[in-house]
Amino acid sequence: MKLQRLRIENFKLFRAPLEIGGLADGLNLFAAPNESGKSTVAEAIRAAFFERHRSSAVEHLRPWGESAVTPTVEIDFALDGKPCRLTKAFLGKKRCELTIDGKPMDGAVAEDHLAALLGYRFPGKGASTPEHMGIPGLLWIKQGTSHDISNAVGFASDHLRNALGESLGELASSNGDAVLKAVESERNELLTPAAGTPRGAYADAIKLRDELDAELNRLRADIEAYQSGVDRLSGMRRDHLRDEAARPWAALREQLTGAQQRLNEAKGLADRKTAQDAALRQATVQVNALRTQLQAMEREEATVVQREKNLLTVQEGLGKAMEELQAWEPRHAAAAQSDAAARESLRLARQAAARVAQQKTVDSLAEQLAALAQSHEKAKSEQDKVTRLQAEAQALAVPDGELKRLQRCADTLRTAQAKLDAVATALEFDLLPGAGVRVAGAAVSGLTRRTVIARTGIEIEGVGRITVLPGGTDLETLAIERDRARDELAARLQALRADSVAAVEERERQQALRKGEAVAAESVLAALAPKGLSALAADIAAREARLSEARQVLQAMPASDAQTPSTAQAESEEGAARAALATASAALNDAKVAAGNAREQVKAAEAELAAVKATLNDPQRAGRKAEAGAALTDALAQHAAVQDKVGELAQQLQTVNLPVLAQDVERLERSVRQAEATHSQRANDITRLEVELQVKGASGLEESASEKQRELDHATRRCAEFHRRSKALDHLLKLLREKRSTLARRLRAPLQKHLDHYLQILFPGAQVEVGEDLSPGRITRQGLRGAQSGEFEELSVGAREQMGVVARLAYADLLKEARKPTLLILDDALVNTDEERLKQMKRVLYDAATRHQILVFSCHPEAWRDLGVVARSIP
After folding, report:
1. 270 has pLDDT over 80
2. Which of 261, 297, 534, 703 lies most in the core, judged by the most C-beta atoms within 10 Å?
3. Closest among 447, 430, 72, 429 to 439, alpha carbons compared
């Protein structure tokens, strides 16, 4: 199917008629900005084929704000080489007219006939949806849907299966599938489809077996526990009777009473020692306080001498600090003067360096200006050369195709002449010197050959005349063909003002040389003036202005003294002077701080000495010292008496171990409680165990265990039967699926072939599987980390978009082989494709365009410049 012309009127944003004609049989590229109507054109094509002309669900086809107009679409196309025209008008004056090879049809009959030919159907009512669009819905990609292919393939699957042949349809509807489904159904009753774990009756049997096994184990454990309980009850009764007779807890209580009495006596000694320890601590505190008071008075008397020595020491320190301060003041002044001189020297050095730098700037700008001026002259020369070469190439130009036509004329002439020579009469002469022979009035001599195609006379001097009558057939026709070819060649050469075909070929070669030289000159010109001669001239003017400004700045700078040191030397000297000044300032500041501290220390020492002398001169101090001495003597006597009592009590306590006595009481108390509790607990355990054994003995554990064992054996046999049946069904299902998959792959081979063809252009070395629904499945290709494999839906949106287009091209090839009509429409189908991958997709489209008509709509014209076709805009 090839579209040839499209006319739209009163259709969405196209109120005025829009006509697009001259569509190529291969690639057609429509490139225009957004909102210019590309998608509207594609929608008009879809509406013309997919929508019923009487449908009332196409109100959206009217232009905005126009409620009375009739959207109309007219399409001229070829179908199996037959000219066709489809005209549809919606909403207002509804009509449908279809003409195929001169045979007219109209109304719903025409629509149904066209749907049957192209492979789609109409809905029962309402607007057409993707599920009705069949083959065209698969091949005509709407904007933003190229990556979604599974649904489109599903809607077109019936037509694709027909293209693959009846066998694939039989594969899906044969009795073999019924058997497979039956086996799968019975297998799935016993095993889960995905994991193959037991389910249904099989799972119930396993559950019952496990429950019976657990219950049997529990019964066996109860039997073992019953037998063990009988033995344990006998031992517990024996121990209980022994304790009832011996009553061990009574003897333990008597031991506890004696231990408690010994502990109480020991605690009385400990309490008395604790009281004496407290009295001893109080006496010790009093002695220490009195001693501290007397020592403080003695230290105060010794402090006067120390304070006087401290005062002399700090006065000497003050004198040294003042000497240090006086020594650093002149040094600091000298360092400040040196620093000021170094800073001035550095300023002059930097000023001189700036002048040198400015001079270098001026020299550099002058050199750049000279180079630009030289480049400008060369660029003008190259521009003149380009103009001359282009003019020469234009003068030598041969109209497109004229050389080939000349060569064909020359070939025709040579062929006609060869045919004529083959049937013409040949005359060979081997004449003696001086022989007078004339052929058709022209003299001949020596060894020569002539061919004649018409009545020709040979005159021999002294002999007479010989007439040659050629006997070949069609001589006249061949001669006419030769003359016609010769005349046509001469006319074409005359039109080109050339003497021969070789001259025209040389002329075309010279034109190609001139073009090549012009391109080379343009390259040189681009290198000399990348932005053009005017930009280069502007650059020269700008640099002249900068040079003038730099010279003015240089002239304004003061002249430098020859004695001025270098910047590095001046900076070094300035740094040394700054460091020396910093050192002197720090030292001077330290000296000032030291002198101030020394003055404060002298004041503090004088104040401390005065305070100590005032304390010693107090008249009541001697009385307090005597009272403290007497009190210390009394406190020492009391301390000695208390200490003797504490020693005596400590000796008595050494014979009594109080912690051990307390542990004896605690140990015996626990022993009594444990003996009584053990006896009481054993009596309770005996009663409880007797009751448990009576209950278990009455429940018939042995009989129950035997019955459970029989039930367990039956459940185990049933599980084994289910296991064998599920394994057999699983194995049979696997075999059936493998056979079906092998047959399906063989039947999908034609589609696989076309997919592989395009895939090798897009992803060299990649492989793609075709699913049973005929959509792309698992894809394997080489990535950065080796071979990578994944499902189609796991690819990125861009990769799915590219594979969606590739798959549709493969479906189109398959349909073409089945002699089904094809047309591909790509409405911004590759918007998520990067630059490198888009190059490969252009190769794919260019290859597919040799077999199909493809309409490409895009809002990025710059991305499609190398598609090999001229981009058309929407008028």
Report:
1. no
2. 297
3. 429
User: What average pLDDT score do residues 559-571 get?
Assistant: 74
Q: How confident is the model at residue 19 (pLDDT cuts 50, 70, 90)?
A: very high
For residue 785, pLDDT beyond 90: no
619-640 burial: b if 16+ Cβ within 10 Å, else e: eeeeeeeeebeebbeebeeebe
> Six-digit token pair at 866?
């190398």
Predicted local confidence at residue 167, as pLDDT: 41
Tokens describing residue 498: 């050339």
Question: What pLDDT was estimated at residue 363?
Answer: 87
CA dihedral 428, 430, 433, 436 (to 10 degrees): -40
The mean pLDDT value of the chain amounts to 81
Cα of 715 vs its chain's centroid, Å: 56
Residue 700 or residue 807, greater confidence: 807
What is the CB neighbour count within 10 angstroms for residue 288?
Answer: 12
The amino acid occupying position 329 is E
Question: Cα–Cα distance between 856 and 838 in angstroms, integer?
Answer: 13
CA gap 31, 858 in Å, rounded: 5
CA distance 660 to 505: 133
Which residues lie below 8 Å from residue 223, measured CB to CB, with a gap of 6+? 701, 702, 705
Give the list of residues 6+ apart from residue 501 with CB closer than 8 angstroms, or none.
406, 407, 410, 489, 493
Cβ–Cβ under 8 Å, residues 458 and 468:
yes
Task: Provide the 8-state DSSP code for 191.
Answer: B
pLDDT for 170 equals: 44
Distance separating alpha carbons of residues 90 and 47, to the nearest angstrom: 10
CB-facing half-sphere around the CA of 849: CA atoms within 13 A: 21
Amino acid making up residue 612: V
Highest mean pLDDT among 282-286, 534-538, 614-618, 772-776: 534-538
C-beta neighbour count of 275 within 10 angstroms:
12
Q: What is the DSSP string of 702-751?
A: HHHHHHHHHHHHHHHHHHHHHHHHHHHHHHHHHHHHHHHHHHHHHHTHHH
What's the 3-state SS for 746-793? HHCHHHHHHHHHHHHHHCCCCEEEECCCCCEEEEEEEECCEEEEECHH
Band (472; pLDDT cuts 50, 70, 90): low
pLDDT digits (tens, 9 = 90+) for 141-162: 988 888 888 888 888 877 766 6
Confidence (pLDDT) at 162: 66
Cα–Cα distance between 392 and 107 in angstroms, integer? 63
Q: What is the DSSP string of 321-333?
A: HHHHHHHHHHHHH
Show the tokens assigned to 704.
Answer: 């129950």
* 353/511 Cα distance (integer angstroms): 60
- Cα separation, 309 vs 484, in Å, equals 147
- Main-chain phi, psi angles of 424, to 5 degrees: -75, 165
Residue 361 in tokens: 């700037």
Residues 6+ apart with CB under 8 A from 852: 26, 809, 812, 813, 816, 822, 823, 824
Look at residue 709 in the predicted model and tell me its pLDDT. 86
Give yes or no for residue 173 having a pLDDT over 60. no
The owner of tokens 């049957």 is 116
Share of the chain above pLDDT 70, in %: 89
Rounded CA gap, 825 and 853, in Å? 9
Distance CA 823, CA 831 (A): 21
Distance CA 663, CA 262 (A): 12
pLDDT exceeds 90 at position 620: no
Contacts of 185 (CB under 8 A, 6+ apart): none
CB-CB contact of 821 with 851 (8 Å): no
Q: pLDDT confidence of 166, banded at 50, 70, 90? A: very low
